[in-house]
Amino acid sequence: MRTASERLALLYDVSRRLATFTDLEDLLRFATRRVRELYEAEGCAVLLLDASRREFHFPVASQSESRANTTAQLSVMRFPADKGIAGWVLQRDTATIVADAQSDDRFYPGVDAETGLTTRTILCAPLRTPNGSIGVVEVITPSGATPGDEDLRFLEAIADDFASAHDRTRLYEELRGEALSLRQICTACGVVILLIGLLLGLGTLTSALAMAVPLGEALLRPRALGAVVGVAVGALLIAVGRGRLRLRR
User: Fewest CB atoms less than 10 Å from the CB: which of 36, 43, 74, 247?
Assistant: First the structure.
């Protein structure tokens, strides 16, 4: 019951942080560390898919003290996305438990060879999004009895939160990029319109002086009114583009 309570607490905490997070990597570091501690495992890692290269990479990994020196190695490590237990889970979109990795034909030994460690038990679940799986999360060599279906279901629940966080971050970055582009366009248009307005105003003033037209009368001419509107609109667009003014519906 204590373990079940801790797992529920972790799910609640991750979900709560997911609603307010500002940094995906911080959230994943917190969650992988807590998952590793709950399983009393040697490691817990998120393996994301690089779709262009069809490779896995390790953006976040939490290692026990005995494996802490491998964290830096994992951060730069890559391997083919069709290899290992991770590749099997990704291709079939199915979570799995491997009680003895070394004797499993699906196991990819390249990571162990690079880190000098020996992986025994693996729990692996896909990171599912509406656009397909973006990677997997693995728990490496938990202590105690061989993990069962309940352990795997919990990992799948955590994986869903991981995937949701990643998807929301990707969407946020896309929207932020689009907003930045719109602001840059808005600023550029504002500068052009402002310059046109200033040129119209300068032309109106020059004409008035050349023709000895009273300034009050000159300001009522269409060109002068156009200059005022141009300057005002240009300044407004520049303010919006620079974030100094927010337009509300």
Answer: 247
**Model pLDDT for residues 54-77, shown as the tens digit of each residue:** 999 998 888 887 677 777 788 889
7-11, 162-166, 198-202, 212-216: range with lowest mean pLDDT: 212-216
Q: Where are the domains of the chain?
A: 2-174, 179-241
Structure tokens at 228: 């005022």
**Which architecture does CATH list for 2-174?**
2-Layer Sandwich (3.30)
The overall pTM is greater than 0.90 = no
Phi, psi for 97 (deg, rounded to 5)? -115, 130
Q: Name the residue with tokens 């799986």.
A: 133
Instruction: Give the other-Cβ count within 10 Å of 148's Cβ.
Output: 9
Q: What is the C-alpha separation between 2 and 55, in angstroms, rounded?
A: 38
- Distance of alpha carbon 75 from alpha carbon 77, whole angstroms: 6
